[in-house]
Amino acid sequence: xxxxxxxxxxxxxxxxxxxxxxxxxxxxxxxxxxxxxxxxxxxxxxxxxxxxxxxxxxxxxxxxxxxxxxxxxxxxxxxxxxxxxxxxxxxxxxxxxxxxxxxxxxxxxxxxxxxxxxxxxxxxxxxxxxxxxxxxxxxxxxxxxxxxxxxxxxxxxxxxxxxxxxxxxxxxxxxxxxxxxxxxxxxxxxxxxxxxxxxxxxxxxxxxxxxxxxxxxxxxxxxxxxxxxxxxxxxxxxxxxxxxxxxxxxxxxxxxxx
Length: 258
What we know:
The protein is α/β, with parallel strands linked by helices. It is built from 12 helices and 8 strands. Helix 2 packs parallel to helix 3 and helix 4 (79-87) runs parallel beside helix 5 (101-110).
C-alpha cells in the first residue's frame, strides 16, 4: 500500500481555494456532523478547545470518511505532542504563536524523521495504516502540511522570512491575537489589524506561499479568497451551535408575541 496524496496540500500547490471550518467542540459525533457538510478542510483545535489526544483521535476518525482534510492545531510548538498527533494520522498541523524563523524551523523539524528532523519513529500506527503503508517513512514529509500561525505584530513584520523557511507549507494569520498585540483585544475585524495583515499576505502571495486565516464573516472570508488567500476558515462548530440556538429561541419568542 502506498501513501495517499494529501488533497489539501495538492490544492494549495495548485492555488485552489480551500474553505475551512474550525472544529472545537472536542467530540467525534459533533465533528462528524460538520464533516459531512463537505468543507475542504477542518481544523481540529487543541489550543483553545478542551481536546486531548483521545478526543482528537475520535474526531480524526469521524472526519476521515467524509473527504475533508483534517488539520490539527496542537496547544504549542512542541515536538512530543507533534509526534503523537502525526502518529495518529493528522494530515497537517497548524503551529500556534510562531514568532521567528528559528521557531518555524523547529516546527518543520518536529514533522521530519532524522536526519532531517527530530520526529521519533514508531512502527505500527494509525498514520501508516498499522504498518501497511510501505513508503510511509520516505514520503510522509511530502504529504504533511506544516502551517505556521503568526499572531503578533513582530511576527507579521517577519512574515516573509518565516514563510520561506524550507518545509513550511503555508502561513496563517491570527487576527484576534494580532489585534490583542495592538491593543485591540476582542475586535479581530478592526480595519487597523487588516491594514498590517494584508500587505504582509500580499508579499507572501507574490512569492507563491499559500496564505490563510479564520474569520467569522463569510462575506469577508470570500473577499480574502478573491484577493489571493488560499485557505480560509469561515466559522466554527461552536459558533454555529451558539448562533443557531440563539436564532431559534429568538424566533420562538417572536412567534409567541405575534
